[in-house]
Amino acid sequence: MARILVADDDRPLRDALRTTLELDGHDVVLAANGDEAFRLYQEGGFELVITDLYMPHMDGIELIMSLRQKNSDATILAMSGIEPNGRPDYLNAAMDFGASAAIRKPFTGPALLSKVHEVLDHAAP
C-alpha cells in the first residue's frame, strides 16, 4: 500500500491514525508538528501527507504551502475539528492553499480510510 506521513500535535489521535492506517496495510510515519513533518517529507518516499491544521511550530496551512513549494504534485489530506461559526472555514482554506482533500474531525476509521483511498486513487498516475 502507501507510505503515509501523519502530522498532528495530539498524540492519542496520531497513534489512533497510525493504527487505523497500518491495519489497512499502509506504512505510517508520525510527526508532532509541521516543522517535523516538513523535515521528514524532505527525506522522500511519501505518497500521502495527512495533516492537522492547528499545530505548534508550523501549522497545517504553512505545511501545505511548504509542501506545494517543494513538490507541486504532493498529495495532501487536511483535517481539522474547528467549526466555522462565523470564522473562516479552515478546511476550505486548506483546499485553497493546495490540499488535495479535506476531512472534518471527528471522523470514524472507515470514513478516514475511504477518504485516504479516494485521494490515493485520484493521485495515481
Outline:
This protein is of the alpha/beta class and 125 residues long. 44% of the residues lie in helices and 19% in strands. The chain has helices spanning 11-23, 34-42, 60-70, 90-96, 109-123, and strands at 3-7, 27-31, 48-52, 76-80, 101-104.
Description:
The structure is a single chain. The protein has a five-stranded parallel sheet with strand order 2-1-3-4-5, sandwiched between helices. The longest helix is centred in the C-terminal third of the chain and has 15 residues, at 109-123. The radius of gyration is 13 Å and the shape is globular. Helix 3 links the parallel strand 3 (48-52) and strand 4. The chain has five helices and five strands. Helix content is 44%, strand content 19%. Helix 2 (34-42) packs parallel to helix 3 (60-70). It has 125 residues and is of the alpha/beta class.
Ordered list of secondary-structure elements with their pairings:
Elements lengths: L2 E5 L3 H13 L3 E5 L2 H9 L5 E5 L7 H11 L5 E5 L9 H7 L4 E4 L4 H15 L2
Parallel strand pairs: 1-2, 1-3, 3-4, 4-5
Helix pairs in contact: 2-3
- Spatial order of the strands forming the largest sheet: 2-1-3-4-5
Share of helical residues: 40-55%
Largest beta-sheet characterization: 5 strands, parallel
What separation lies between the terminal Cα atoms?
A: 15 Å
